[in-house]
Structure formats: C-alpha cells, structure tokens
UniProtKB/TrEMBL annotation:
This is Putative glucuronosyltransferase. InterPro entries: Glyco_trans_2-like, Nucleotide-diphossugar_trans. The keyword Glycosyltransferase applies. It is an enzyme of class 2 (transferase).
Amino acid sequence: MNKKPLVSVYIPTHNRAELLSNAVKSVINQTYKNIEIIICNDGSGDNTDDVVNKLQKEYKDIPFVYLKNDSPMGACFSRNRCIAAASGYYLTGLDDDDYFLPNRIESLIKVCNERKIDLVCSNLIFKDGNKLKRGKNNSGVITSIDMGYENLVGNQLLTRLSYFEDVGGFDTNFPAWQDYDLWYRIIMKFGPCIKTNEATYVMDVENDRKRISTSSKAHIGYRSFIEKHSETLNEEMKSSLFIRDLINRNKKIPLKTLLSSGRKVASFKHNMRLCFPVVNSIAAFVREIKK
C-alpha cells in the first residue's frame, strides 16, 4: 500500500492537443508516483479526445479523470471542475503548454514534510523556442503581507485540496489575475507559503505571449483584484500593483510614478528585482537624495 499522500494534478486545455500530450507525460514521468491526473477539455475543436484516449490506453496504471465542457467556458471554470473531481490530499496545477521537471512533485512534497507546511511553490524555467532559461531566484517565506505587493507565488501552487475547496476555488468573474486572487485568499487564510530554491516548472513563454495577460483584459483583472481585496490592501500595496498592471500590459511607467514608489518598492521583504530592475535603481537614487 502506498503511504505517500495522493497528489491530484489538474490540467485545463483548449485546442492544444499536441502540447497537452507533452504536459501530461511530464506528470506521468514524475519520480513521485502516487498521483492522479485530471484533465478538463474546455470545448476544444481539435483532436484532444484522441490524444487523451491514447494516453489513457498507454498508461493504464495512472489514474485519469477526463472532463469535457460542451463549449468553451474558460480556464477558471475548467480548473474548478477539476478541483471538484479531485480526490488527492494535495492538489496542484499545470497549464497545457507547460511541463514539469521529473522531480517537481517529489521536491515540493519533501518541503511540505521537512518544513511542516502545506503551501509550497517553486521557481520557474522559461522556455522560448528551443532555449531554456531559469528565472531569477526568489525563494523564501511568502506571507500574506508579501502577497499584497505582488504575486510572488507565480502561476502554480501545491497545497491541500481542502484549502482550494475552503476558499471557493478560482473566481470565474476574473478575466485575468485569477491565480493571484486565489493564492492571495489561500495564503491569507492558511499561509504562509514556502517558495523553494529549485526551479521545477517549465513555462512556455512563446505561447505565453499570446495569453490573456498581454490583452486589455489584464487591466480588468487588476481592477477586480483591487476592488475585491481593498480592505486588506494598504496604499503602498495598491501603488505596487498599479505598477505591476502597467508592466503586464507593456505600458510606459511615468517617471513620477517610479520616483514616488521608490521607498515602497525598496521596502518589500521579497525584493522586486525579478520584475522591476529599473525601479530598484531609481529607488536607490531616491533614498540618496532624501537623506
């Protein structure tokens, strides 16, 4: 009998059959073996059914749950369907154009066991065509206060299934910032979270350029986040999120905004070098001229 806790991995997918196969196989090839894979086909018009059926036949020893939406309902709706169908103690997600390194789940569970904590995430590796590049290290403890300034978790979190359920899963009213909203709610209630030094999640930034974060919907997501969490966000946090919204939408940031945010950005426990290299240099300049 396998005494290791079951980990459910949810994968929403829409018209990415070939990429989906690679994502699913990266879960199947995990060194941690007590897993189940939950796929939600969000109204795809390609051969996703055939790809999933082939995988199920080829890997009969892997528990699969395959869900289908009759028409496209969106990633959050699909993720919530996966959450409702999950039976694992732990739950984590994977986008259909990304993939796990073989030791991802094992390394995250190891942190859970060693640190006696059930909220864990990792650093990222970015894939652009045939090139792989590790993102800058941003490891450590992530508190609810830290999360008020920026989504330091990233796009995926491993935690208890019950935590997802307790806070109500993904908010389908958000056109963007959905991950951030959910992680913020979970960490507010059950945190803090540990971000490991290891980078075990590979994000395809070539496909990511086409994602929602580059569209006008990103600003709606930002506004929705600010309005939903206005009671727990102070002015410094709102200022930081305002800058983050501009960066997400590739907008120019007024120098006045950067200068006025210098001290605030510099004060983050988890510094913003990962996202704001220009802000850091300006923050240092502001500190000097204000002495």
